Amino acid sequence: MAVGVRTSDLRKVYSSSPPLGAAGGFIARADAKGGKQPKAQIPALDGLSLDVLPGEIFGLLGPNGAGKSTTVGVLTTRVRPTSGQAWIGEHDVWKEQARVKHLIGVVPQRPNLDFSLTAREILIFHAAYFGIGSRQRNERADTLLEKFKLTERANQMVRGFSGGMMQRLSIARAMMHDPQVLFLDEPSAGLDPQTRILLWEIIREYHQAGKTVLLTTHNMDEADALCQRLAIIDHGHVIALGTPVELKATIPGGFLLRLRFGNQTADLLERLQSLAGVREVRAVDGTGADVYADRGGSLIPEIATLAANAGAELSDVHISEPSLENLFLHHTGRSLRD
Amino acid sequence: MNWKTFGAMLARDAHVARRNALQLFLQTFLQPLLFVFIFGRVMVGSGYMPAAYKSLLLPGIIAISMVFTGIWAVAMPLIAEFQWTREIEDRLLAPIGVAWIAIEKVIAGILQALVAGLIVIPLAWLVLRPGVEISIHTPFAFAAIIVLVAIFSACGGLALGCSINQQHIGLMFGMVITPMIFFGCTYYPWSALKPFPILQKAVLINPLVYASEGMRATLAPQFEHLSITAVIIALLFFDTLLLLVGLRQFEKKAVT
Fold this sequence. Notes:
The complex is a heterodimer. Chain A is α/β, with parallel strands linked by helices. Chain A is built from eleven helices and 14 strands. Chain A has helices at 68-75, 97-103, 119-129, 134-147, 163-175, 193-208, 220-226, 244-249, 266-273, 300-309, 324-332; strands at residues 5-14, 42-52, 57-61, 83-88, 91-92, 104-107, 181-185, 212-217, 229-234, 237-242, 255-261, 278-284, 288-293, 314-320. Chain A starts with a strand and ends in a 6-residue tail after the last helix. By secondary structure, chain B is an all-alpha fold.
């Protein structure tokens, strides 16, 4: 039976350096640095509540440092929340840790493979930690090595593996004990396009077997292609939640035209607002405007005429179709890559 | 408590130890054996040291080999695995309480320390003979002490391994290990410090003193030594203290 994931009003304040996760790695290192200066209080999660349904592919989308990895850390028993609760199915993550660990598989942002072992041994020992019998774990290891195209390197130490191979092995390892909920933290970061497609296929296949998948990403395409529902996270809380289609529908008009002018006047912005199909106009930096509209390219001649009449020369135009990137920009005023 | 998980983690450590057997062997025994050879054979043979020194030296060498095997076996992997590669993560995510993972490391360290002790006795005896006078007069006391020493070494490894970072390993050797060896009554009996009364009291905070003196009391009782009861009490104290400190540090490192 599929298992859901829930959090309620999670807060996490780091009093030492935040987990590597928040800055590109996965898990925190308790850096016990004494020192006289007061420790910085870094809030990572600020009242985050989520409800991931059993058997869905759910995405956490947000820029670096938004709190995605910390959320995964809390849900996987690796980061203790300052307050709030988290559940995997019916089990409170912080009260029934061993039970919860049985239900989850975790693929960290950065591979944390056991460098003292070969690829095959990593899978075999992982299954042994979960109490899987010898015959079954051998069979499953062979199947997964094959599926992830690692059979040829199975008996080599992983130290010499490429980043992509390590990532594939990390995912294979997380699947060894057939977890009900699979966590993937930035699974395709650093993967070549071919491997990324293989990864997506594998995630979909795993999901079709009735499993819940929770992944974090700052890649819009990935979120769009894979996730049934998404939560957009910024500064440690959810700023938008829904299916990719629903979320994109909340962007006024759908299309986003980013305009730059030689010199810009308030009058010009008002006139832009009055064009047919324009839903919203926002001034940017005094020299540009973000125009949310129902149509894209067909607006350009009218905008160019308006600008010429107002004496503001149009110097740059960028049109984007409805996308999660635009959604993020709309909610935060910042681009995901900022 | 999940015994299957615990057993699998022990099996993993045994597997890695087997793979690195030669390296471990050299790392553990080369230095003490060279020491035994120079001080026990060369210095005694050339007349700079009395012949009785051989029997005095051997218990200390056993203690030092056991203690540093245990510390090394637990501390070094922990330091490496808690670094940015976070290799220990797959065990932290195994379905078992976090403290049990630390205890598993301690058990693995105890076993390695015991094996080191049992191997170094005949090896050192081979290098030193003839003229070594050691015998086990009180087998139960000897067994108790050797186990307590192994526990001390592994718990010490846990406490050290979870308290320092990779970049401080050199510092650990300079500031902790080296003074511990030289003030550990390994190469001389505690009674030899009588002319230095303050130092003689001060070294009692060094748990290696009890390991060396305990070995001496049970293997070569002809030399003056600390009482076996005092040694056992002190080792029990250090075992408990280091285990508690080690577990606390481990949990602090394991969960953010």
